């Protein structure tokens, strides 16, 4: 037990003040290197905010009585700083920047060496290997129902389950219809019915067939009820074999009693409500959505533009909509449009 297991003495104990520190701080080598590099490069290239020989530094040197030839020269209109031995001309600054721009570090060569299989023609071989990797990556991302080989994936991918207790409550009918409509609009099996409903509206209201916003508002307010009766008529008729079990329960709508969770795992990604994040260190309540939606300048705008819009949202509630045979989690957000 008397054997000393620590044999190496830290080099920092050679510092005069180190032994007097009550809490010996940890020096971050990465940030020290960055700060030193910023100071040197900023001084050589005279970058504003990074130059360590500005007016304040030169006045300090003047107070110390050193390098008096570098003291500021005050004129009527501006203050001039005499050039020091480190100052570079414009051509020399461009040469320094070009040198850094064309510099290749060892890590770049190491990564390129791994994809080189033909040593006699390394450049062409590396280019072909990169093209092959990009082609394979493109296929894995854009081909559906394909299992990848050699591409690592998370074990939680595809897993959806609640991570906290729930609170069941009766929600407002309008809010529930908004959530239900969002589920329908993002279900591939419902897309043909959406197109059919839009044609039905244009046929029923021919005067409004060119008013895009009016058609969209009419669709949003009537599609849920229309789909319910449409699916019921197909089930009662000869086309009942074409209606799947999922579509049948989707058309019936979710239960009014909605479980609400503070934390939920959706497709392997953890989501928390804002209230849950307020008592946690790691934040998982912020989400971003790129939506293909309609942009309206005002209530009187008759020519809205349909395009992609980005929205940033903070999760307020996580609902688990109950469709009897299955459940679908949805996020209720406070959202704001992101401009530019």
Helix content percent band: 25-40%
**What does the radius of gyration come to?**
33 Å
Outline, from the CA principal axes? elongated
Structural class: alpha+beta
Beta percentage is 15-25%
Q: Compute the number of helices.
A: 10
- The number of strands is 10
Distance between the termini: 66 Å
Q: Can you tell me the residue ranges where pLDDT is under 50 for at least 5 consecutive residues?
A: none
Number of domains: 3
Largest sheet, strands/sense/barrel: 5 strands, antiparallel
Mean pLDDT: 80
H/E element sequence: HHEEHHHEEHHHHEEEHEEE
Task: List the keywords.
3-stranded antiparallel β-sheet, 39% helix, 340 residues, elongated, alpha+beta, 10 helices, 5-stranded antiparallel β-sheet
Question: Which SSEs are present, and which pair or pack?
Answer:
Blueprint: H1 29-44, H2 55-64, E1 73-74, E2 79-80, H3 90-101, H4 106-114, H5 122-142, E3 161-162, E4 166-170, H6 173-185, H7 191-204, H8 212-236, H9 245-252, E5 257-261, E6 263-266, E7 269-272, H10 274-277, E8 286-295, E9 305-322, E10 327-338
Helix pairs in contact: 7-8, 8-9
């Amino acid at each position: 037990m008397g054997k000393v297991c620590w044999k190496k003495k830290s080099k920092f104990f050679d510092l005069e003040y180190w032994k007097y520190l009550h809490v010996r701080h940890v020096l971050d080598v990465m940030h020290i290197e960055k700060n030193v590099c910023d100071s040197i490069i900023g001084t050589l290239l005279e970058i504003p905010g990074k130059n360590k020989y500005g007016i304040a530094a030169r006045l300090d040197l003047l107070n110390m009585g050193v390098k008096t030839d570098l003291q500021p020269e005050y004129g009527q209109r501006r203050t001039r700083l005499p050039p020091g031995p480190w100052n570079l001309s414009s051509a020399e600054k461009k040469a320094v920047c070009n040198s850094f721009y064309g510099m290749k570090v060892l890590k770049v060569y190491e990564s390129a060496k791994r994809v080189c299989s033909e040593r006699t023609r390394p450049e062409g071989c590396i280019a072909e290997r990169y093209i092959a990797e990009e082609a394979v990556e493109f296929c894995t991302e854009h081909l559906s129902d394909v299992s990848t080989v050699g591409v690592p994936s998370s074990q939680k991918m595809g897993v959806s389950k609640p991570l906290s207790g729930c609170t069941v409550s009766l929600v407002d009918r309008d809010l529930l219809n908004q959530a239900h409509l969002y589920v329908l609009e993002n279900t591939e099996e419902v897309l043909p019915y959406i197109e059919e409903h839009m044609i039905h509206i244009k046929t029923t209201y021919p005067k409004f067939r060119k008013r895009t916003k009016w058609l969209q508002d009419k669709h949003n307010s009537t599609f849920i009820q229309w789909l319910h009766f449409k699916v019921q008529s197909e089930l009662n008729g000869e086309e009942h074999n074409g209606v799947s079990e999922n579509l049948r329960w989707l058309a019936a709508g979710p239960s009014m009693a909605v479980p609400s969770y503070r934390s939920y795992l959706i497709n392997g990604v953890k989501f928390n409500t804002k209230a849950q994040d307020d008592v946690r260190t790691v934040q998982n309540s912020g989400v971003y959505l790129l939506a293909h939606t309609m942009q309206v300048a005002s209530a009187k705008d008759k020519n809205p533009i349909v395009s992609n819009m980005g929205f940033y949202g903070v999760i307020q509630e996580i609902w688990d909509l109950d469709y009897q045979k299955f459940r679908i989690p949805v996020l209720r957000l406070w959202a704001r449009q992101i401009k530019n």
